[in-house]
Amino acid sequence: MPEPTRGLLEAVDVSVRFGGVHALSDVDLRVEAGGITGLIGPNGAGKTTMFNVLTGLVAPTQGRVCLAGEDVTGWPPHRRGRAGMARTFQRLELFARLSVEDNLVASWEAAHPGAVFGRGRRERRARVAEVLDLLGLWEIAGRRAGELPTGVGRLVELGRALCTDPRVLLLDEPSSGLDAGETSRFRDVLLDVVGRSGHGEPSVLLVEHDMALVMEVCDRVTVLDFGSRIAEGTPDEIRADPAVRAAYLGESDVA
Amino acid sequence: MSGLWPFVVFGVFAGSVYGLAAMGVVLTYKTVGVFNFAYGAVAMFCAFTYWQLHVGWHLSTWIALPLLLLVVAPVLGLVFERLFRPVLGLSAEVQIVVSLGALAALQALVPILYGTSNDRTLLPLFPRSTFLLGGGVHVGYDQVGMLVISMAMGVGLWYLLRHTHFGVATRAVVDNRDLAAMMGVNGTSVRRVAWIISSVFAALVGVLLSPTQGLDTYVLTLTVIYAFAPAVLGRLVSLPLAFAGGIAMGVLQSVLSKYGSSGTIANLEAAIPYLALFVLLVVLGKRLKEAGLSVRPVTPAGADLESPPARTRRGPDAAVVAGGVAFLLALAMPFVVHGPHLGDLTFGAIYAMIAITLVVLTGWAGQISLAQFSFVGVGAFAAGHLAGAHGQHFVLAALVGMAVAVPMGLLIGLPSLRLSGLYLALATMAFALLMDTLVFSRADVSGGLTGITVARPTIAGIAFSSRAGFYELVVGVLGVLGFATLALRRGPVGRRLQILRDAPLAASTLGVNLTVTKLVVFAVCGMVAALGGAFYGAMQQAITPTDFAFSASLQLLLLVVLGGRSVISGAVIAGSVYASQLLLAPVLSPRISQLIQLSIAGGVIGLSRTPEGTVALTMAEARRVLSVLRPLPRRRLGVEAAASAASAALATSASAPGYRASSLEPPPAGLAPLSVEVRNA
Hints:
The complex is a heterodimer of chains A (255) and B (681). Chain A is an alpha/beta fold and 255 residues long. Helices cover 36% and strands 23% of the residues of chain A. Among the domains of chain B are: 11-248, no CATH class; 318-547, no CATH class. Chain B has helices spanning 5-32, 39-56, 61-84, 92-114, 141-163, 165-175, 177-182, 187-213, 217-225, 228-233, 239-258, 263-284, 318-332, 340-364, 372-386, 394-418, 421-440, 443-446, 467-489, 492-502, 504-510, 514-540, 550-563, 568-584, 590-606, 613-626, 634-651, 659-663, 672-680; strands spanning 130-133, 137-140, 452-453, 458-459, 462-463, 542-543. The model of chain B is unreliable at 292-314 and 648-681 (pLDDT under 50). Chains A and B meet through α2, β6, α3, α5 and α6 of A and α20, α21, α27 and α28 of B.
């Protein structure tokens, strides 16, 4: 079997219906190991629903979700989390009353049940310090997460996801609310993180509105429109795809 | 069949009042987004006011009733609007606390305003004489009157919402508050009207119910809770379903009353509204939507002006030091305090023990429980039945009580898997009322009206039967429990519970098993409350079911909110307040005690947005006073040095050196110097 060509995280033929509304119709999505996959589409195209299906917050009406070849469709969210999936949220879901540092610590603990004393504790400290370094969050490590501006909150959510040492990182519009400097910094962090812990992991699935960022960092891009996949390919192919231009990009200039 | 018919007819009449109440509850939830736990208290307050106007001051019905419906009830509605305005859109927890505070305030206000006489009765608005309805059923004009009034009100409300400007404005506000405001709909006046109508409905409910239910502050308040199940049946949005549900509830109760006026069936008749509420909540589960969108997280109101101090992990913890001092003082109390007063302190310590479970459950894990005293009751009755004449089996009895509390905790934790916030609070309330009506009311559990006796414990040959001995035992257990909980607070367990409260979905995607965590926290808190119950029973010695009624759980929640629901010291304060009430009760006149109750309720409403309660206020004040004496912040320099070192390391990889400055909220540059000048002047 050609093992390497198989995606690390795959959605196969996924459909979701809310009442009569088709949020997703027969969508395939593949996140390759060691790369950044983009998921784009106009508002209401079903991107966040796709995230919820992948992480187990929404059960698909039809279709499968596979992580490293294993069918995880029936798994609850926490089991997927422990198997190596981590995500951020478009509408921030921070642990608002905890400090930034405790947000990261709590996340590490959630992903490593039972490893709270002795060696586990040292590992936890090291990992949290590493992530605080990586994202430049030391200065606000003691602030309550709930009182941070949105842009910083997104970084904390990213840090929280990183603390679980994920195999796949799902980022839901991470750059919205960030200013130009923060976005550029975020791009560097993103490129720095991918493939860092060896084995080509973590891989990243990125939902993003900032086209310039998507086209720059992504290896492959999937385009959704009205709950259907209308294109899949490299950024260059996507840029050239007439269906994408018509449905989503219009005639506007694509960076 | 013909035997059943009269019961159905009477059920429709009685149920129409529940339907009226249910519509009143739904109306404010739908338009304002607030579920009013105090609805029964409003009805009760209005019934007493009507009695005062009509019987006390001899005003005729034609003056008293319009005065009640057109002046008193609307004013009460406006007071509620004002009360809830600051907490609109805040988390369900805050709104629940406010409405429970309002409930307590109204219950305290009635004896203050109208005295405590027990022999008050109200006659029905309509004559009790009967006429023959079809099927050989004689019905009273008063019963028909209830149905007519309720239906007229329902139709009137329907007309108002469908065919008037107010109705359009209401629907606009319900659909999208902000958009409606932009279109020029005044949300506040819509909410005012909704509160007024709801309050008038409550007044009618009170006046219609009190002739049959009697004028009793507690009973009337609880009877109106019968209407919560129909309201939930309409998912708190459908007025017709709420009304129909009320009638169905009346019929169900009435038909059950045919089959028995005593024993299990009679209990079931009283329990059926609570059972229906519990079952409906579990069944409807996630299909119930929260209207009180918790967009804004709760921030501490007392101390939010200054950013909370960065937590340093070194050095002695202030809470541990304070707790240690308090513990030693408590242990030394028997040298100063003697006799029955020591008993009051013991009660306070036991209360603090129980309050700790509520802090962990509600303050930390965000799971509101209105049933904590049901667990206390289980522990107390287990001790009563098993501890033996001299308490030689006390430990065993306490363990059995705790063991029984586990499945109970799982049962009450069950709805928490599918519900949160408001609906969970309703489910725990229904559970507590079910325990009252189905379990504690059984003679074989509670020993009937006389109650049962609990012996003081003998543990390892030592008899803790003296006041001082038992006191030291209780304080010792409280100390162990308190310090153990303090130790958990900053550790993995504390964090796990707090992330469950702050962002359960995020926690689950990170690997937290919500089901297990919730069930465990309910079961463990229930177990500890049952342990408190064993001590409570041994202290009280003669226990009756009323000690553990829903009202006790309610009072516990209020005192914990007052003390501070997210901090252990809040539980200790709750215990101290409880003990002080007991200590002062013989000295103070009843009127003063009622005023104290009222001020506690007021304090609860005022502190609804402050999870740290009075602790936060005291700390903020102390910090302000001490800030003058504070040395220059050395430690902070250390933190900043580390931060700048870290960011220097970052600068090598980061392409945006300006990040550090831009990542934080810019200080209000224009304001800062100004405020300094003002202070200097």
